[in-house]
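User: Could you walk me through two proteins back to back? I'd like the raw sequence and the structure tokens for each, with a short line separating them so I can tell where one ends and the next begins.

Assistant: Of course. Protein one, sequence then structure:
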Amino acid sequence: MIELRGRGIVPGVVTGEALVSHETISGWGGIDPATGTIIERRHELCGVCFTGKVLVFPGAKGSSGWSGFFQSTRLLGTAPLAMVFTTVSTKSALGAVVTRVPAVTDLDQDPVQVIRTGDRVTVDGDRGLVIVHR
């Protein structure tokens, strides 16, 4: 078990399977909110669905529409289970808030390097804690 300590952005506690992106994620034009799938053509996870997964990524890129696209995933039932990101920005923080899933950032270790796709992860947005169960 590995514990990462950081700052909670959105409260709540969930446990689920991690989906790790080593690249930033674009909201507008980078995801399909109807399916919860990354559609950015040159992205390492193009064609991969994040619905119901703990989405671990470096941060958001692109326009201010990022949060709107992730809010749509909540409304359509295709949102990730939680978000863990390395770099907090207004896009990623607002996106996590409107998606209403537990979110943690500013961790003491880089989650993109520590967590692997398929790991079982607990995200505790109340305490700013991410626990990796291998």
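----
Protein two, same layout:
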Amino acid sequence: MKLPLYLRVLLLLTLVGCAWLFWEDTADSPETASTPAIARAVDAPSAPVAPGPPDEVEGVDLFPAQTWTPPPPPTPVDTSPPQPPPLPFSVSAQWRYENQPKIVVLRGNGRQYTLCHRCAVPGHIEPGKMLDAQYRLDKLTDTAVVLTFMPLKHASTLRLDKH
């Protein structure tokens, strides 16, 4: 089949145009990518405009590393109520006058505390009074001293029969 001359010329021009576009559109050409820009007339100066984000696109990891090992178990949360510190008091002395309630001397926190029911000892502490800023004397019996740690409202018993 024989092509007419004008079709041969058009085919040749098409091939030359494609070759020219191929050579112009290479990766190492220093030309910047053309982006459409819309120009508008500005009558008054506007406030400075902050530069936009860079045109770099962060890489997205489509296939992140995966493992079959199970994650570690969560650490257990301690839900138990707070515990008071151990009693800082020890029995230093105890005695009883004729047919009278027992008098107990406790030593702790660098001081001595005299515990009794209605006694004449100066500076004595009766049940219901505070020993120091954190402990209250609740009960004084012949066999035990009951102290309450006030920040936690926790009662502790100090046995007297062992001393």
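The longest strand covers residues 90-95.

Let me know if you want the two compared in more detail.
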